[in-house]
Write a structure and sequence with these properties.
The protein has 233 residues and is mostly helical. The protein has 2 domains: 93 residues, Rossmann fold (3-Layer(aba) Sandwich); 104 residues, Rossmann fold, CATH 3.40.50.1400. Helices cover 49% and strands 9% of the residues. The protein contains 10 helices and 4 strands; from the N terminus they run αααβαβαβααααβα. Helix 3 packs across helix 4 and helix 5 packs across helix 9.
Length: 233
Amino acid sequence: MDIPWPLRRLLVSLILIKRPEQSAHAYASIWWDEGSPLVVLSKRLQQAMKKEWSHGPVELAMRYGEPSIETVLTRLSEQGFKKVTLAPLYPQFADSTVTTVIEEAKRVVRAKSLKMQFSVLQPFYDQPEYVSALVESVRPHLEQPYDHLLLSFHGLPERHLHKRDPTGKHCLKDDCCMTAPAQVVATCYRAQCLQSAAAFAKRMGIPDGKWSVSFQSRLGRAKWIEPYTEARL
């Protein structure tokens, strides 16, 4: 959240009061026997990566939860590791996701005086392997006839995008997200979402007009990225 800490703390407190009750039923409907889908899938990914990564251990850390980034980096430092590859598992870039992971890692290194350097895996929104994974996960659900496929991404306040436009000329102007230069796309969440969606639709062979993109989970009164999912539905 890019708001002053006192306001952020108040907002988080209000969310924690209302959100659990409102979300309990929704979470229960998707919960697995093994536990939280996010945790289960993350652990599966960790185990799969161990078979592919030959440069050291593969650890799993949560930005908000346990094991925390601080816990894992501290343990790696105690084991003598001085170089770490940090892989934020967010396909598209956003300050509220990727940047917070990087900043938290930096904070831990400073606060604990760890003799550690880390490199960061860049967003992978357009990587063929990521698009292929999307296709394989969705394909079984599209075997039956359907009228339209709505690809709904998590939303962000528009101000987050404006702040990250290095040129100050492209953000949210017409169809700039699909034609913006690489330096703009590199930090534009909306552009990366649209490009992920377009690559997915192309790989699936879904014609234009039969799919579209929207953004969900709007919070507060500030203007968020459009089109909103509820409006599109």
